Amino acid sequence: MKNLIFIIILPFFFFSLIKAEDNIFEIKNNEVFLENSGDILELRNKSKQIAFKNAFRVLIEKILSQEDYNKINGSVSIDFESLVTDFKFQKEKISDINYFAIIDVNFDPKKIKLLFSKKNLQTNVFISETFLVIPIMRKFNTLYLWEKDNLWYEFLKNEYEEQGLLKLYFPKKNHKNKLMISANKILVKDIEKINQFLKFHKKRKAIIVFVDEVYNYQKKMFETKIKSFIYQNNEFSDLLITSEGNLNKESKKSQLDILAKTYLRDLQFWWKNKIDTSKNKPEENEVVSLNFATQNIKRSIQLENFLLKILGEQNMVLKEFSKDNVVYDINTDYSVEQINLALEPHDVRLIKNLSQKNYFDVIDEK
To answer: Residue 358: left if φ>0, alpha if ψ -120 to 50, beta else—which one?
Structure first.
């Protein structure tokens, strides 16, 4: 573990305890199918245990690296129920033969992090800045974006999981958005129009995903292509995800619904890989101290809370404070790049201080 000293220059105030992003630890719609044994209490208890185990697998797939996930997945030594804060049966259906239940499970963030800490596994619950989604569909040589017939938009929006680490925003399909920007303007990369559209929706980044589906009358097959980009800071970059390479380009029926499901799953993996790989990138200088100053007390408290969320209360030990300074001893394995990814949604960034060795300034960009 690296011992980091965070020097926070701000007026002294009482430190508030914060909660982690609880919705990340809430796994909804866990489906359980069982044979009806005739004992409803036994069925409910068994379905509950199955839901806990399945929900735990979904959770660790979100917050652990692939390597760490493989280490712990399938472990029989974990008491899943002890990690659950609460659960809810959303639906039950019982027949003479079968029993079916849908159960929502909410895990305790502190217990989850403690469990993984004991096993020397690092959780990553860094939530992304919200990306505005621009889903363009071309079908039978017609472009669709904000039109009601854009099925690609509907499939993507319906498959989007709000509890994921990657946050997406789908502008409404309405007349105002049609007037502001068209599919053609985006495909020709009209930066001015795209920036205006992002500004109107109060977003800074966009994911542009273009799907082209045609019907080959000779082969009697649908032919599908997909391409996606990230737009930020007036630049476009290819967004390479596995669903593009693994797509079955020819099929007997439209596969837009299946493609939407796999594409959104792969988007979540793309963000998680971005988090996971950042910690493995070598840096010229390790973080030794972190320094920020602000005259806005309310914003100062916000910045403190952001750091607590990233690093955890147990890893931030108050060392000393004075009229002008508060000093923490910090234990963390997070890289600067990781911390910046976590701070990004809050308009905060770490910048290397060139005048002081091993110093990083916290820049408030809000």
So the answer is: left
